[in-house]
From TrEMBL:
<comment type="similarity">
    <text>Belongs to the glycosyl hydrolase 13 family.</text>
</comment>
<dbReference type="Pfam" id="PF02922">
    <property type="entry name" value="CBM_48"/>
</dbReference>
<keyword id="KW-0378">Hydrolase</keyword>
<dbReference type="InterPro" id="IPR004193">
    <property type="entry name" value="Glyco_hydro_13_N"/>
</dbReference>
<keyword id="KW-0326">Glycosidase</keyword>
<feature type="domain" description="Glycosyl hydrolase family 13 catalytic">
    <location>
        <begin position="137"/>
        <end position="559"/>
    </location>
</feature>
<dbReference type="InterPro" id="IPR017853">
    <property type="entry name" value="GH"/>
</dbReference>
<protein>
    <submittedName>
        <fullName>Glycogen debranching protein GlgX</fullName>
    </submittedName>
</protein>
<dbReference type="GO" id="GO:0005980">
    <property type="term" value="P:glycogen catabolic process"/>
</dbReference>
<dbReference type="InterPro" id="IPR013783">
    <property type="entry name" value="Ig-like_fold"/>
</dbReference>
<dbReference type="InterPro" id="IPR013780">
    <property type="entry name" value="Glyco_hydro_b"/>
</dbReference>
<dbReference type="InterPro" id="IPR011837">
    <property type="entry name" value="Glycogen_debranch_GlgX"/>
</dbReference>
<dbReference type="InterPro" id="IPR014756">
    <property type="entry name" value="Ig_E-set"/>
</dbReference>
<feature type="region of interest" description="Disordered">
    <location>
        <begin position="458"/>
        <end position="482"/>
    </location>
</feature>
<dbReference type="InterPro" id="IPR044505">
    <property type="entry name" value="GlgX_Isoamylase_N_E_set"/>
</dbReference>
<dbReference type="Pfam" id="PF00128">
    <property type="entry name" value="Alpha-amylase"/>
</dbReference>
<dbReference type="InterPro" id="IPR006047">
    <property type="entry name" value="GH13_cat_dom"/>
</dbReference>
Length: 687
């Protein structure tokens, strides 16, 4: 099989004589290009036999040229192959490289030759440095569908996301980078359709080059796939004008063709044996849990991903990618994960992708699938260990202490997570390899993780079997909604602690849309099949939600203003390294932490003094106090060379600290409220 570098110019390429289509298949025995009427894509206007170039440098590339293969043309493939393989010679297939899609009246898909022309108006990518990045994970439709400040016809669309009210909200919140749940064209699984449900999240990709049409405005949808693409590009341009980045959640690990008896739409009918991972007997090897797994030991599959990434990066101008179940993309011919897999390395080395943010979901569901910390330098990774440890400290440890008198864990492992998870990511990669999060699209929201002990997924139609049962959550004494003021106060402070830890930790923080004001999904921790008010953002909020939103804004501002909170490198013992973690750790008495302090479950209070060692920003030093016991504690503020005083910046026990004493001195005793966090800025002595 050829190198992926030799599989050039696949898909449609326009020329003076029309266009040429090139499709790779090693096992096909014949292939036809079908052209369809522009007004009726069910009507075939021409069938052209494609020729195979098995000896050229492309290797097993089939091609055909037609003057009709020009922008606006609808086209498809019909492929034949050996018996015993999953060819479907009567099915019209989608070119894997189709940059546009059109539908027939019966719901079949046709490729569309796209006119990519677009006026970017000189707007450049923001290129936000990774240490300044605050990610906001959002759903295109869910983010704006209920926003009354957006014209009704634009709500839930690409244009709605780019509306001034949305942009103002995101800028005011203090995020820098919008990470969109899948926007490549997807379809719902057959199982969900039969149940009357739909795939809301979008992790079921039909085509790797085309924006999901249903997220475009009705006007753009009526204008065809070209108008959908222009609306998407317009969204990117307007977000870039505002200084906001766009990162796409991309699903390359599997496709919408599902299991071996699933629909045949593209890769399965073109060359199932080559594109999908399977045994010699043709049984699928599924490491994704979605019925099929794309085989990235094969150069053709590698080339498909690289070309798709290039298209979105160069033609659509997005700023990066979050790779769903990325361990699958690093599995070799034996289905074993390889850190230096050719595809993982090629993504980083591709000149067209070099400045993109690359974020791995570093696991899949196959053997050896959990690979957190094992990706090459250049990738940041979702850090599920961070999520679990933060939740454990603030939630399940508190529950255990209420039931048994003491928590199960001390402060040590939490401190390691706050400092950037050095034990997970190598010194070479540094803290920015960690995407810190306490919630994501899958799992409980922040409001639900403090209100439910167990998942409540009956509405998903799977008798509550789906979704994780290991949530590290705590309902604070009542399962679900309550009017008990004591319970509500404890829950709301717990959310503030979760968000405070997230936004004050080393690493790259990711906020899930709605957590900033306490969005609930009524205990559903796997709401992938609910497209409605349960999963949409609400824009009319209660007073406590507005207060929480203001807390989140404050935290993003404090992160932005204090470089000590966002180191680029791990510090080295005894050395001063520019932009590295420089931390000193103290107990409640203001003394250096001992080994016993770290490991003792009864010791759940920590003070750490972090100093920036700047390359591009002024010197900065902060003191973070973390107290994980449901009783107040007196701490002695640490004395440290170069520190003459402290100013209180934030206290999670209070929505507003304006009435609290702000200035303090080393050696002073300070009362820290039950289960709370404080952030103080350290000042040098006055001369």
């Amino acid at each position: 099989m050829p190198s992926p570098d030799l599989l050039r110019d696949l898909g449609v390429r326009s020329g003076p004589d029309g266009g040429t289509l090139r499709v790779w298949s090693a096992n096909a025995t014949a292939m036809d290009l079908l052209l369809f009427d522009e007004r009726d894509p069910a009507w075939t206007t021409a069938t052209i036999r494609m020729t195979r170039d098995a000896d050229g440098d492309g290797g097993d590339v089939w091609s055909a040229t037609s003057p009709e293969l020009r922008p606006g043309a609808r086209y498809g493939l019909r492929v034949r192959g050996p018996k015993g393989q999953r060819f479907s010679p009567d099915t019209v297939l989608i070119d894997p490289y189709a940059r546009g899609l059109a539908r027939t009246g019966t719901g079949e898909w046709r490729g569309y030759v796209q006119d990519d022309a677009f006026d970017w108006g000189g707007v450049a990518k923001p290129r936000v440095p990774l240490d300044h990045t605050v990610i906001y994970e959002a759903h295109v439709k869910g983010l704006t569908k209920l926003n009354p400040d957006i014209p009704e016809q634009l709500r839930g669309t690409y244009a709605g996301l780019a509306h001034p009210s949305t942009i103002d909200y995101l800028k005011d919140l203090g995020v820098t980078t919008v990470e969109l749940l899948p926007v490549q064209q997807f379809v719902s699984e057959q199982r969900l359709t039969k149940m009357g449900l739909a795939n809301y999240w979008g992790y079921n990709t039909l085509n790797f080059f085309t924006p999901h049409a249903a997220y475009a405005s009705r006007e753009a949808q009526h204008g065809g796939t070209g108008a959908v693409l222009r609306e998407f590009k317009g969204m990117v341009r307007l977000l870039h004008e505002a200084g906001l980045e766009v990162v796409l959640d991309v699903v390359y690990n599997h496709t919408a063709e599902e299991g071996p008896r699933g629909p045949v739409t593209s890769l399965r009918g073109i060359d199932d044996r080559s594109y999908y991972r399977q045994t010699a007997d043709g049984d699928y090897i599924d490491t994704t849990g979605c019925g099929n797994t794309v085989d990235y030991s094969k150069p053709a599959a590698q080339r498909l991903v690289l070309d798709s990434l290039r298209y979105w990066s160069e033609e659509v101008q997005v700023d990066g990618f979050r790779f769903d179940l990325m361990a699958t993309l690093g599995r070799d011919e034996n289905a074993e994960f390889q850190r230096e897999h050719p595809l993982l390395r090629a993504i980083l080395d591709d000149p067209a992708l070099r400045d993109q943010k690359m974020i791995a979901e570093p696991w899949d569901v196959g053997m050896g699938g959990w690979q957190v910390g094992n990706f090459p330098d250049g990738y940041s990774e979702w850090n599920d260990g961070y999520r679990d440890r933060i939740r454990t400290f603030w939630l399940t440890d508190v529950a255990h202490a209420r039931a048994h008198g003491t928590a199960q864990h001390g402060i040590g492992s939490l401190a390691g997570r706050i400092a950037g998870s050095n034990h997970v990511f190598s010194s070479q990669r540094g803290p920015l390899a960690s995407i810190d999060f306490v919630t994501a699209h899958d799992g409980f929201t922040a409001a639900d993780v403090v209100a439910f002990d167990t998942k409540h997924n009956l509405g998903n139609g799977e008798e509550n079997r789906d979704g994780s049962s290991d949530n590290h959550s705590y309902n604070h004494g009542v399962e679900g909604p309550t009017r008990d003021r004591t319970v509500l106060a404890a829950r709301r402070k717990a959310i503030r602690n979760l968000l405070g830890t997230l936004l004050l930790s080393a690493g790259v923080p990711m906020i899930t849309a709605g957590d900033e004001w306490g969005r609930s999904q009524n205990g559903n921790n796997n709401a992938y099949c609910h497209d409605g008010p349960l999963t949409w953002m609400h824009w009319e909020r209660d007073d406590w939600q507005e207060e929480l939103l203001q807390v989140t804004r404050t935290l993003t501002r404090l992160r932005r203003e204090n470089p000590a909170l966002r180191p680029v490198r791990f510090g080295r013992f005894g050395e001063t390294v520019p932009s590295a973690t420089q931390m000193d750790w103290y107990n409640t008495a203001g003394e250096a932490m001992s080994r016993e302090n770290w490991d003792d479950p009864s010791q759940r209070t920590l003070q750490y003094l972090a100093a920036s060692t700047p390359e591009f920003e002024e010197f900065n030093r902060i003191l973070l106090i973390v107290h994980g016991v449901e009783a107040p504690v007196e701490v002695t503020l640490p004395a440290h060379e170069g520190v003459g005083g402290y100013t209180l910046l934030w206290d999670s026990s209070h929505d507003d600290i304006s009435g609290l004493a702000a200035d303090h001195v080393p050696g002073e005793q300070l009362t820290v409220g039950p289960t709370s966090m404080l952030l103080l800025r350290a000042h040098p002595p006055t001369v």
